[in-house]
Amino acid sequence: MAPADITVLMSVRNGGHYLAPAIQSIIDQTYEGWEFLIVDNASTDDTVNTVQSFCDSRIRLIELPEDLGQVGALSLGLEHIKTRYTARLDADDISLPDRLFEKRSILESNKSLLLVGSSYQVIDEDGVASLGRTVPTEDMSLRWMQLFENPLAHSSFFFRTDKIKELGGYDPEYKIAMDYDLLLRVLSSGPVGAVHKPLIQLRLHPGSESQNRKEATYDESRKIIRRSFKELLGENLDEHTKNDPGGVLYGPCTDPEARLEVLQLAKRSYQKLYPAAFDCNDIWNDYLNRMGQLSEAWCNPSSLPVAITSVLNSWKVIGFEESLNRLIRYLKMQSKTELTGPLYWLVVRILKTVVKVASSAGT
Fold first, then answer.
1. What SS3 string covers 146-210?
2. Is the pLDDT of residue 165 over 90?
3. 170, 194, 216, 235: which could join 117 in a potential S-S bond, CB 3.0 to 4.6 Å?
4. Is the pTM of this model over 0.90?
C-alpha cells in the first residue's frame, strides 16, 4: 500500500444513514495512499458508532465535545492534516472510485495548479442518480463562472494542503458558502482546474443544509460576488447598480435592468483581461445561457413593459428569431390577463417591426 499523501477531510454532525456510503466510497478508491480524517461535530445520533464500525487503520476520528459548526470543524481538521494533498467530502456525498487517483495525477503533473474540482452527478436520498453538472476544465472559464456562482461543488475540492493553509483556510465569516469564499481566495492567488467527467455524486435531500438555508446562502453568496468582481475584475458593483448591488446576479431577481447591466459589465471587463475569452465555448455558452435566462424569465416581471425591455436589450446576443419567439410565448401566457386578443396581436406586430428595424440598423 502506498504511503498516504492525501487526506480526505470530512466534518459530520448527525450523519445518519448517508454517512456509511460516503465512508465506503473512500475505502473503494483505486488509489490507496490516503488517510481519512473525520471530525465529528458533537453528534447526538450513532455517527461515532458508524465511523468506528469501519475497521480500517487509515480512518481517524476526532470527537468534538461541542458543536463548532461546519466551518469550525473543518478548520480544526485542516490544522491536523500533514499530507501534501487534501480532498473534501461532505458526509452525505459519494466519491466515485477514480476520484483520488485522477485528481492527484493532475496536480502531480501540473505544479502551478492550486486546486482541482470535477463535474458531478446528482443523487437523491435513496442514491438514485439524475442529471448532474458538467463544469469547464480551464482556469479562465472557472474564473468567469466565479463572478456569478460557485463553479465547483465543495465535495469535488482537491487541493495542495500547504497552499490552502497559507491562504488561511476556511473563513469563519462564511457559515454556508465557505467553499465559494475559499475558491475566490484561491483564484486570487493562482490557477485552478477541473476534471470534465463526474468524479463525485452530490446528494440532494430535504435535510441537506443547502436546501434548508437558501436565504442565508443568498446573503453570503452576494457578498462573495461583490468581492469576486473587485478582486478578479477590479470592478466595484456599487458604482454600476442602484439597488442591491450584490443581489443582481444571485438569487431571485428584483431588478432586471441592473442584472443585464452587470452581466454586460462583466463581459466588457473580462474581455479586457482576456481578449480571447469569448472565443472559448465554455465562456461564450455560459454568457448566452445567462442572457437567455434573463430574457426568457424576465426575472418574474410584474408588467409587460419589463418583459419587452428585457428582450429588446438582449436580442443581439440570443438572435432576432429567438428573442421574438420568447416574447411571443410570454404574450401568449399573459394574453388572458394583461391583453385582449386584438391588442395582443397589435403588440406582436409592433414589436416585430421594432426589432427588425433595430436588426437592420445594427444597433
1. HCCCCCCCHHHCEEEHHHHHHCCCCCCCCCCCHHHHHHHHHHCCCCEEEEEEEEEEEECCCCCHH
2. yes
3. 194
4. no
